Each structure stands twice: as C-alpha cells, then as structure tokens.
Amino acid sequence: EAPSSHRGKREPASSPLEGERMDAATEKMCIGEVGQHEDSAFVDRCKYVPLRLSGEERQKLGILVAALKVSEYTDEVDTFSRRAKSYRIVDSIRDLLCISTGLAVSGTAAKGRSLLRGEVCANQALFRELFEIGRRHKIMNPAKMRTEYGKLMYLLQDAQTRGAREALGFSCVSPLRMVSSFLEAKGAAAVLWDARLPVATGWHEGDKRRAREELGEAWASDSLSSADVELVVDSIDDARCYERFNVEPVEHMLRLLESRFDPRGPTPERPASLSLRAGDSTSVVARHRPRPESEDDEEEEEDDDDDDYDDDK
To answer: 70 Cβ partners below 8 Å, 6+ apart?
Structure first.
C-alpha cells in the first residue's frame, strides 16, 4: 500500500490537457501564466501517496485504536472451540463494531444518536471509514499501531470471506484515499500538473512558501477549498520527507559499499576490506586473504587457518 512498495510496469500519466475534457475555468487556471510542468513521474507518484489525516479523521482514528485495544478478536477466533470458526468470526467482528459504535456515540453525543438507530449494517459507512483511516495511518506511520494493526489485518481478512460478508450485510474494506483520487473526486485533477505544486512540496527547487500561497489562491473553488489544497500539498510533502529520511541513507550506504569495497578483496583503488574472522568472544575485521583458485589451494588455506588457531592458543 505504501508508494515505494508499488511494483510492476506503469504507464506514464498523461497531461489533463491531452484527451481529458475540462471546463474553461479549469483549463485557464491550468495553462495560466505559470504553466504546467512536464514531470509525469511526479503525477504518477501522487497516485500512491496517502492523504494526510484531517482533524476529524484523527478523532476517528482514536476510536478505532481504542476499540482494537479492548477487542479480543484473535483470542476468540484463533482458539479451539466446538463452535464453528465462521460463527466465531462473525460474532467477534460484530462485537468490535458495537464497541466502535459505543465509542463514537460517547465521543460525539449530538451526532452519535443517529448511530443507535437500526442494525449494525446501518452504520457500514462509518465502519469502512474507520478501517480505511487505520490502514492509511499505518502507511504514513509504520512505527505506530504495532499490536493493533496486526489485529486489524486479521479481522479485515476474515471479514472479506463470503460467509462473513453475507452475515454482516456489507464489506468492511474500502479503497484508500490517495492524493490523486482525492483530487479527481473534487474535479480538480489538473492541480497535479500545476508547475507550482512540485515547488510547494519540495520536489523541485524554488520559493516553497510563495508557491503554497499561490496554489491555494489559484485553485480555491466551491468544490475544492484552500484547506483541501493545503492538505494535498502537506500529504505530498510528507511522502517526500519519509522517503528522504528512510530511503536516501540506504542508497547512500549502498553507494559507499560499491565505491569503497571490492567483493574480491582489497585493491590499490579500494584498499578497505569487510572480511571477518573469529575473535575473542566476537567477530573482528580480518586481514585479507585472496580467494583460492583450486581445491588444493582450498585445502592449504584450511591448514593455514588451523595453524593460526593453534598459535593463538
């Protein structure tokens, strides 16, 4: 679900000015004086960038986490019992949904009264939203929800079986809200091609603050507020920062290993070595020994190792 984990061949994104129908106002804003960028990889990346949680969504995330903490789903389902496992799965899921409903009612008493009317399936939109928020939050914060997320995954996997969906009356899984899909739902997919967006999110060099202000003023409309534009910019910037602090150190270390060390042994250009040998209760960097070229050389090498071991004793 994360952007960096997406694999497979992807077709480059096409410009909204090529083939897609746009109204005159949107086309004018997209062309404008600033113009559009030609970085199709940036637009394609936004398809897999999760949307940052809003204030209301963070409150719902607290409801989900609290419900998962008190739920005994895995204890009830993954134990031996005379009852059929399918019945235990449905009952445990209903218990979690009821707990979530109770927490939602207690958290928002005015709005929560409507949740108490009807069966559990009457609140299916709320439950799907809660589970989607939890999954999206985990993508952006892998260190969070360590125990609760595992329980959530087991629950959603079991809830997707045919018997569970028929018993509950609805599906608990909904697509994740990504930056690209969010803008498409607002009818503002052309924002991704605005030349100021890569600058505002830090992908391209430039005045970041000024680009953010101009984006909010240029694209604010009845369907897309300035807060929505700011949310999109912050979401893309979050993904950039995450990749920078987690991917770049690994890539830098790989470049150092390839440029400073030779897998066949030290050379005049790359004299350092990472070979190890047994030391005193630990492993230490060993002096270099060239690889044997034949079986006889391997036997001589083993004999030399035994002699060195005896000398150490």
So the answer is: 99
